[in-house]
From TrEMBL:
Enzyme Commission number: 1.17.1.8
Role, per record: Catalyzes the conversion of 4-hydroxy-tetrahydrodipicolinate (HTPA) to tetrahydrodipicolinate.
Species of provenance: Roseovarius ramblicola
GN (gene name): dapB
Residues annotated as binding NAD(+): 11-16, 37, 101-103, 125-128
Coiled coil: none
Name the record gives this protein: 4-hydroxy-tetrahydrodipicolinate reductase
Catalytic activity: (S)-2,3,4,5-tetrahydrodipicolinate + NAD(+) + H2O = (2S,4S)-4-hydroxy-2,3,4,5-tetrahydrodipicolinate + NADH + H(+); (S)-2,3,4,5-tetrahydrodipicolinate + NADP(+) + H2O = (2S,4S)-4-hydroxy-2,3,4,5-tetrahydrodipicolinate + NADPH + H(+)
């Protein structure tokens, strides 16, 4: 175990934090050395496994990242933008790989992540699954092949506890479609329609978000033309695919040069 990369999970009590703990525990390529939660959280001071209602893992949930980050090879982080940005400062100082699945960063937050990436590896993606990243590449190609006579709509569905919309994956797909069309997403995105909105703007990319139940994640990219539609779809049924992808990213980042990377880099997929 001592020779395996040590993984710290930031946001231990969250859906992804718990899944990550299980995936890392079962891995033969890494081991869990730490779990972090915000100060005052009820899990702090408890064994991670016991806090999850399972067998002990031998890792106590902490609210102090300094000592854990100093011992880590990688931090996997599915939390909130402010928490991930603060963690990036620590991982940059320690030259530790930082895998970020958090979404919803503003421009200021992205600038701070870029500054941290000058000193350490940051792998950031709105979705860590192989299938979704293939879908991103397909979306870019189809958008490039079909002109503005085909309207692009992105529909996503998630569980009722998700706090952001559109999802980070939906925005990834929107960026890919915009790139395929040679435009900036900010200039063509329709992120909400309500009331008398007027007719659809040609060339715009629409988003719709569905929230309900325990849906893990569903994404459709619809290219709607006159008399025909092309629909690209990905359905996630097990959150473990994201945890496995995040662990793969943490291992891939070992020994890399500092910089900002994404899952396209990790998976070695062509960008064109």
């Amino acid at each position: 175990m001592g020779d395996l990369p040590g993984i710290v999970i930031n946001g231990a009590s969250g859906r992804m934090g718990r899944m990550l703990a299980c995936v890392v525990r079962e891995s033969t390529q890494a081991h869990l050395i730490g779990a972090l939660e915000r100060p005052g959280h009820e899990w702090v001071g408890q064994d991670m496994g016991r806090a999850m209602g399972e067998a002990e893992m031998g890792v106590t949930v902490s609210d102090d990242p300094l000592e854990l980050v100093a011992r880590a090879h990688a931090v996997i982080d599915f939390t909130a933008p402010a928490a991930s940005v603060e963690m990036a400062t620590l991982t940059a100082q320690a030259r530790v790989v930082h895998v970020i699945g958090t979404t919803g960063f503003d421009e200021a937050g992205l600038k701070r992540l870029a500054a941290a990436a000058r000193h350490a590896v940051i792998v950031r993606a709105g979705n860590m699954s192989l299938g979704v990243n293939l879908l991103v590449q397909m979306t870019k190609r189809v958008a490039a092949a079909l002109d503005e006579a085909f309207d692009i709509e992105i529909v996503e569905a998630h569980h009722n506890q998700k706090v952001d919309a559109p999802s980070g994956t939906a925005l990834m797909l929107g960026e890919a479609a915009a790139e395929g069309r040679g435009v900036l997403l900010d200039h063509v995105a329709d992120r909400g329609r309500d009331g008398i909105t007027g007719r659809r703007e040609q060339g715009h990319i629409g988003f719709a978000a569905i929230r309900g139940g325990d849906v893990v994640g569903e994404h459709d990219v619809i290219f709607a033309g006159a008399g025909e539609r092309v629909i690209l779809r990905h359905v996630a049924t097990d959150r473990a695919i994201f945890a496995r992808g995040a662990l793969k990213a943490a291992l891939w980042g070992q020994g890399r040069k500092p910089g900002e990377y994404d899952m396209i880099d990790v998976l070695g997929l062509p960008r064109e």
